[in-house]
Design a protein that fits this description.
The structure is a single chain. This protein is mainly alpha-helical and 150 residues long. It is built from 7 helices and no strands. The protein is globular, with a radius of gyration of 18 Å.
C-alpha cells in the first residue's frame, strides 16, 4: 500500500498535479505519524489494514468539511475537499453498496449469534475485521443496532 502511494506521489510530482501532490503528501504524513506512534509502542509500523483505516478517516473528515463549507456558501473550498476525497478513495477498495452492507451485517449478526445490544461490540469488531476500508462503519453500526433491537 505504501509503495502504491509513493509511486502515485512520484507520478503527481512529474505531472505537476498540485492537488494530487498535496493530497498524497498529506496521506504520507498521516501514515508516518502513525508509524512513529507505533514505534513508541514497540511495533515496526502500521499495517495495510491500519493504512486503510487512516484513509477512511481522512475521507470522513473531508466529507464533514464539504458539508460545512457548503452550508457556509464556500463552494470553492467544498470542491477542493471533494477532489481530495476522490484522490484518497482511489486507494481504498470498492465500497459496499447499501444492500451489500445490509447483507454483510445480517450475516455477521447471524454467524456470531448476536441477541441484543450487549453483542454490538462483537458484531462491529467482526465487521471491521472482515470489511476494513470497504464500508462506512457509522452506517453499519446503525444497521447492527436496528437488527439487534428487533
Amino acid at each position: 500500500m505504501r509503495d502504491k502511494i509513493n509511486a502515485a506521489l512520484k507520478e503527481a510530482i512529474k505531472a505537476q498535479d498540485k492537488r494530487r501532490m498535496s493530497t498524497l503528501r498529506l496521506i504520507s504524513a498521516a501514515i508516518k505519524d502513525r508509524d512513529i506512534a507505533a514505534r513508541g509502542q514497540g511495533k515496526d509500523g502500521v499495517s495495510d489494514a491500519e493504512i486503510l483505516d487512516i484513509l477512511a478517516k481522512m475521507v470522513k473528515q473531508r466529507r464533514e468539511s464539504v458539508k460545512t463549507y457548503e452550508e457556509a456558501g464556500r463552494l470553492e473550498l467544498a470542491q477542493q475537499e471533494q477532489e481530495e476525497i476522490e484522490i484518497i478513495e482511489s486507494f481504498l477498495p470498492k465500497q459496499l453498496s447499501e444492500d451489500e452492507m445490509r447483507q454483510a451485517v445480517a450475516e455477521v449478526v447471524e454467524t456470531l449469534g448476536c441477541e441484543g445490544l450487549k453483542d454490538m461490540g462483537r458484531a462491529m469488531g467482526a465487521l471491521k475485521e472482515r470489511y476494513a476500508g470497504r464500508m462506512d462503519f457509522s452506517k453499519a453500526s446503525a444497521m447492527v443496532r436496528e437488527l439487534l433491537n428487533k
